[in-house]
Design brief:
By secondary structure, the protein is of the alpha+beta class. Helix content is 41%, strand content 15%. The strands form 2 sheets. A 3-stranded mixed beta sheet has the order 1-3-2, covered by helices on one side. It starts with 7 loop residues before the first helix and ends with a helix. The model has no long low-confidence stretch (mean pLDDT 94).
Length: 117
């Protein structure tokens, strides 16, 4: 989880304390093997792992940006995929509302769009 510029475990613990009252169990954390621009984070519930794109482990990616992506993946733990008939709801209304509570939500979204362009 410790990258060259960002430590995912330290970020996870800080976010868990700040937003989730320490209630989320530590998943496996790691950086992707590829430098993906399209998928910047992924929560794998089968393996209990959060994987963050190595593209974010750079001085050009400010800490709040990495925090936002980790926070988003932590929300997948807090709000698991729902099934409504044949439909899978990955980002429920509750998920989206919680996501917007991230302090620099709008800034992070703009920066991620620029990073992926």
């Amino acid at each position: 989880p410790r990258g060259r510029h960002h430590d995912l475990e330290e970020i996870f613990h800080a976010l868990n304390h700040r937003f989730f009252y320490g209630e989320i169990s530590l998943p496996r954390l790691g950086w992707s093997h590829q430098n993906s621009r399209r998928i910047l984070g992924h929560y794998d519930s089968g393996h209990g792992a959060i994987i963050i794109s190595r593209k974010l482990d750079t001085p050009a990616a400010p800490r709040h940006l990495v925090e936002y992506v980790v926070y988003h993946e932590m929300l997948h733990i807090r709000f698991p995929v729902e099934r409504r008939g044949q439909r899978r709801i990955i980002h429920s209304r509750e998920f989206r509302e919680a996501e917007k509570k991230f302090p620099k939500y709008e800034l992070a979204c703009r920066q991620l769009k620029q990073l992926c362009a």
